[in-house]
Amino acid sequence: MTAPQILSLLDSVRIRSTGNWSAKCPAHPDRSPSLSIAEGQKGVLLKCWAGCTLEEITTSLGLRVADLFSDAPLGKSRRAISQTPRIDPRALAFRFELYALDLWLRAELVLNTLKSLGQMTVSDVDLDRLMGVVASAYRDQERAELFEQIIDSLRWKTFLEREARHAA
Predict the structure, then answer these.
(1) How many other C-beta atoms are found inside a 10 Å radius of the C-beta of residue 52?
(2) Where are the domains of the chain?
(3) Each residue's pLDDT tens digit, 140-154
């Protein structure tokens, strides 16, 4: 295993220096980080300054001491699964639709608010900020249009797949 993989199993991880971290030891009720983690030449080094053994630490993490070495073979339970997740175009289209709606609503709110300000006198600094907000609102509208095009293509793809299944 790599250091980042082991760090993801620990609580209260703090960076000490490049390749060195501290965290709460999982082998005992730790109030402050007493576990040192370091990247070694052949794997990950662990040391509990409260006195926990390496076996106690790895067991509490659900690992073996051999798992700390970079050349350790992955056990059956730890073997990486290389299946690509199946993307449901309908669910993706729905998520994009919600995001596009949020962009449209936000842009409309900003632009309508700015229109209601009318001929209010503002400083140059505030005018620059307002122009930035307007530009952001227009970018949001452009993004929303792009997402709507993606939504249409995803829905069209779903329709064609459904038609192909019914034809078969």
Answers:
(1) 19
(2) 3-74, 89-167
(3) 899 889 888 988 888
